[in-house]
Structure formats: C-alpha cells, structure tokens
Design goal:
With 101 residues, the protein is an alpha+beta fold. It has helices spanning 39-54, 69-77; strands spanning 9-17, 22-29, 59-61, 64-65, 85-92, 95-100. It contains two helices and six strands.
Length: 101
C-alpha cells in the first residue's frame, strides 16, 4: 500500500479473549475520497494475518449493518460466513438498522 501518511480511517481487533482465542475485527474508511479503492480488502487481510499468525487466535467475528453491502462483500470474500442478524440494533441518523454477524 502506498503511503502518503494521511489517515483515512481506522481498523483493529477488539474484544480479545486469549483464553478462548477469539476476537472481533473492525474497519472503517472514513475519508470519502478513499472509499472504493480496495483498502478494506487489504485491511481485512492484514487483520486476519495478525490475528491468526501473530496473536494465535482461533476464531474471529465481525458485525456490520445490513445496509453496508461493500463491507459485507469484503468480509464474505475473506471467508467470513453470516451467522445471525440482530434486529433493529444500530440507531443511526434517527433510524434503526439490523446488524449482521
């Protein structure tokens, strides 16, 4: 990835549980000019590598609003499977959204 040292979003691994060897990944491209450039795909691959190779985790999950089709596609291409939906969980802009696990 070419670096211009300008932050475009955030990503990481949350809710680490080293006993059960699990965690949750998250990623957000907040800079509108940088969306759609495949950064999310690369970020998810880096997070997976770090989680499984460096942290020696066994399981990861992610949660995404159902309307966020680009992020759902990135996760599915990385091997994540939909395991459930939490109905009307995220309240954003005066409206409830479903969350996909």
């Amino acid at each position: 990835m070419k670096s211009n040292r300008k932050p475009i979003g955030q990503a990481g691994i949350d809710d680490l549980d080293f006993l059960d060897k699990g965690g949750e990944i998250f990623f957000l491209i907040g800079d509108k000019d940088e969306k759609g450039r495949e950064y999310s795909r690369e970020i998810v691959q880096l997070l997976l590598h770090h989680a499984f190779k460096k942290l020696k985790l066994n399981s990861l999950f992610a949660a995404v609003t159902a309307e966020n089709i680009p992020s759902l596609n990135v996760l599915e291409k990385a091997g994540f499977k939909k395991i459930g939906i939490r109905r009307e969980y995220n309240f954003i802009g005066g409206k409830y959204f479903e969350e996909v696990f």
